[in-house]
């Protein structure tokens, strides 16, 4: 079973965007606990995860890569639901029993804007094991490229209802993590199931 904890990451300093605060409100109303992670919170991970994050962070070419690395370590160590801070969340999923990724395909592969897993799930173990082998000088390597190469064991939920702020199909890429602008509205199904 997936732990009812919403994890979000904000490494930029200062206050996270309003959408992150709103998502945590939705989670609290549904009875979920919430954690907004900063670089200082890495000490809440296992010693091995702390060491890996500290080793990889300086090699990341962009803060979004650091966020990607941290999300995999959090989900592997603690389990729960990860959600980007620029997502307008309207509802929480119920009955999550296995690992899944809300799947929007961009030019580099599967987006990981929302993903969930029980702690120590084999899919997250595999992703974490591959982190040291990827080229951190390329922006998409820690996100869609790595996820697309390691989808075995994940249920994919195709996000057909995802829309950008102009009402068309969302372009998942092209917005920085720190933009603070909603990429779209996302309501998870009552039970996220594979399609």
Description:
- The chain is α/β, with parallel strands linked by helices.
- 27% of the residues lie in helices and 19% in strands.
- It contains 5 helices and 10 strands.
- The strands form 3 sheets. Strands 2-1-3-8-5-9 form a 6-stranded mixed sheet, with helices on both faces. The protein has a two-stranded parallel ribbon with strand order 4-10.
- Helix 3 (63-78) packs antiparallel against helix 4.
- The protein is globular and about 40 Å long.
- Residues 160-195 have low confidence and may be disordered.
As for the number of domains, it is 1
Low-confidence stretches: 160-195
**Helical region count?**
5
**Physical arrangement of strands within the biggest beta sheet:** 2-1-3-8-5-9
Oligomer: single chain
Output the CATH topology: Spore Coat Polysaccharide Biosynthesis Protein SpsA, Chain A
Give the overall shape, derived from the CA principal axes: globular
The average pLDDT value, as a whole number, equals: 76
